[in-house]
Structure formats: structure tokens, C-alpha cells
């Protein structure tokens, strides 16, 4: 079923490496990091449905990204103060080439960019697993 045991043969040597586990282990180390411009949702969006069907709540740690799959956990770090937060992608946006991620109000406050409108941040996430 994809996992095999490395059992010693009669000579006491292992029968070989388990490549399925090695491939899975290597995949987990491919963290993607990018420095991008971030914005945050306006309060008028409170309670409106997001693209995923969930309602936007300013107190939740969520974000919008144009390409990442819904449910992806993204770590967003403010390089000016070192503060970071984990957010879940549950919407599409921002609809701009310059900005790459929209944060909820709570996430923007947690990393100290609320009130600035726009900030340069570092985002990091694990790529989607391939079947």
C-alpha cells in the first residue's frame, strides 16, 4: 500500500531504502517563501460570503489569494517587526497584480500592518501534494 518495511535479509542487511517514505519526507521540506505586498479586508466585507462559501469574519485568521487552494495554511511575516501569523486561504483576491494576499483584520493587526493599508510581507507555505 505504498509503505514497505526495510527488513533485513538472511545476511542481516536491509533490503533497500523505502523510496515512498523518502519521497514523502523530501516533499515536506519544500517550503515556498515569497516577499509580496499585502492588503487587508475593509470592514464592509464582514459577514459576506467568500469564494469558498464561508462567511468573512474579521476576527478569524483568514486570507484571500488568487491561486493557492482553499484550506492552504500560509504563514505571513511582517519583516519590519518579525511578527508572524498563520492564516487559512478561504477566498480569492486581491484582484490586482501588485498585491498578492488580502488578510483578515485580525491577521493584519496581529502582524502590525493594520492601519497602513499596504505592507511588504513574507509569505510561506507548503506546495499542494501531488497524487
Notes on the protein architecture:
This protein has 131 residues and is an alpha/beta fold. The chain has a domain at 42-125: Beta Barrel (Barwin-like endoglucanases). 12% of the residues lie in helices and 28% in strands. It is built from two helices and six strands. The protein has helices at residues 19-28, 105-110, and strands at residues 32-40, 62-64, 73-77, 84-91, 99-103, 119-125. A six-stranded mixed β-barrel has the order 1-5-2-4-3-6. It is globular.
Précis, in short:
This protein has 131 residues and is of the alpha/beta class. It has two helices and six strands, in the order H-E-E-E-E-E-H-E.
Protein topology:
Blueprint: H1 19-28, E1 32-40, E2 62-64, E3 73-77, E4 84-91, E5 99-103, H2 105-110, E6 119-125
Parallel strand pairs: 1-5, 2-4
Antiparallel strand pairs: 1-6, 2-5, 3-4, 3-6
